[in-house]
Amino acid sequence: MNRRLERGYRLVVDEGVPHDLEALEKARLAKTGALSTSPRFLFVHRAKKRFAWVEARGVELLHAQGPAADEATTQPTTKPCASEAAALRERDALVATLMAKGYELDTFGAKDAPKKRATKPLAVNDEIERAVAEDPYDDGAWAVLEDWILQQDDPRAELVRLAKANQPGVERQVLAAALPQLLGPKHAAVSRVIGLIQWRAGYIVECYYTKQGRGADAAAERFYEAPAARLIRKLDFELEPLARLATHLALIAKAPCRHALRHVEVLWSPDRQHTSLDTNALAAITKLTSLKIRSPTSVLQGSATLATLRDLTVAVATRDTLASWCAQTFPALQRLVLRFEDRSPARLVDELAPLLDGKMTPALERLHVIVKSRETTDALTAATNDCALRPRLRELIISPWD
Q: φ, ψ for residue 206 (rounded to 5)?
């Protein structure tokens, strides 16, 4: 460089020196010792060529003082204080003392606050998600979605990599940290109402909806709106009151998961109030193939045909309960399980007439009727031997309760 200067070159920019004054002052201040997020005040006494700096860091007062030449090597002393407020008072008193002795404030500053890493939004590919929803049990379709997530460096990419590497412990930790994005800002409330979750690539594919009570409807709404709930294929419910099932079905009918959901099961509930289920909401679950409602108080309302349903389990408490289901035609139904409470044999045969004539379930192959008594079992067995439905059945089971 000296030779170039001798030949007439002029130094315009020295890349070894910070270009802006603020950076230069921050660099000088940092030489006095590791900075914290608390401000440090550096003083100089120009006549005596001395320095001093002071910092209130939490409940401690840090102070260093000495010759200007030793500014970068002098170790500070630390004085414990009773509180953060006390440390600030001690700092201000020391600053006043230094200034009274002729020290001047040269610079001040603190360690830069760590920059928050911008959270990358979850990517959405409607076309690939539709392909998965067409068959949510197809590993090939899921593999395409996972590869796309990896290509996008989506926040779920790490979950995909850990799953492929078979590292479930680390995967659970990463998943827990990702819940605010996967389940939304109210992820804690949503997490409280679901359990037994099966995840894949940051999506919930199966889960058990169990908790009810205050705020349950709001939590349900947030759940079905969550990015992680877009490709659910199986939902199990434990609901009390059972009327909440209608709320869930109405939410599902508007949610993205309505195209992927295949199985809905409602476990037994002690609730004895009738629950009306809207066939329009059920029909909006476009590929629903299995519906099992073990509580005996659900009735159907509406005229929409449940065209994709192949497996149905219904518990029957009253004549109205059964009549509402028998009023529907199930063109794809292949398996039907009916569980009856108290019924006389003659009454039960009469109530089952719409089913036994074969028009309600033209594709039915398996019928299982569960009744309370052996007498009712025998009467129903005799009635079904000559019914129009019998010849097409591959399996007919009429049994008493266990």
A: -145, 145
